[in-house]
Amino acid sequence: GANVLFVDEKDRLVVPKSDSILPSITRKSLIYVAEHILHIPVEERAVRLEELKSFKECGLCGTAAVISPVGKIQNHEEEICFPSGMEKPGKIMDELYRTLIAIQDGEMEAPEGWPYSVRKSPAQGSAGERILSEKSGKVQELILPFLQRKTKGRR
User: Fewest beta carbons within 10 Å, which of 11, 20, 37, 73?
Assistant: First the structure.
C-alpha cells in the first residue's frame, strides 16, 4: 500500500486525511521531516478531486520506495498532469526523499526517539527469533513468517 502526498502552489505539503488512509510510518516520518527539519508548512485535510489540477507535485509514499513521483492521474477519460513527476520528482518531493534517506542511512542525525536498535539474543523459538532491544533492554518475540513455513511439519 501507499499514501499520496501533494504540493500546492504555495509550496505547502498537502496530506490527505481520511478514515480510510493507511496509518503509515513513512507518511508520518515525511510529515515530521517537512514540518520540523525542512520547515515546509503541512496541511492534513480532505482533498477533493476537483482540486487535483491545482497541485504542482504529487507523490506516493511507502516503505520500499519512500516517495515515488507521480506525473499523471487518469480519471476515466480525464488526465490530470502535474508540472513535475513524469521525468523526475519536483523540488519538495525531492527534498523530502533526500532528507529521509539521509536520516535512514545515518548521514543526518535522526530525530529523538527514531532509532531503535535490536540484536539477536541466544534463545530462538521455532516460530521466530527472540530479540533484545538495546533501547528498552527487554526481550521481545519477533515472529518471522518464513521461519514458520520452514519449520511447519518438522519435529
Answer: 20
What are the backbone dihedrals phi and psi of residue 62, each rounded to the nearest 5 degrees, phi first? -175, 175
101 phi/psi in degrees, rounded to 5: -65, -40
Rg (the chain; Cα; Å): 20
What phi and psi values does residue 110 have, to the nearest 5 degrees?
-80, 150
What pTM, to 2 d.p., does this model score?
0.74
**Residue 20's pLDDT is what?**
80
Whether the Cβ atoms of residue 26 and residue 4 lie closer than 8 Å to each other: no
DSSP one-letter code for 22? -
Phi, psi of 105 (to 5 degrees): -85, 0
Place of cell 535490536: 118
pLDDT digits (tens, 9 = 90+) for 64-103: 889 999 999 999 999 999 999 888 899 999 999 999 999 9
- Sorted by sequence, the CB contacts under 8 Å of residue 26 that are 6+ apart come out as 3, 61, 62, 63, 66, 100
SS3 148: helix
Burial 41-64 (b: 16+ CB within 10 A, else e): ebeeeebeeeebeebbbbbbbbee
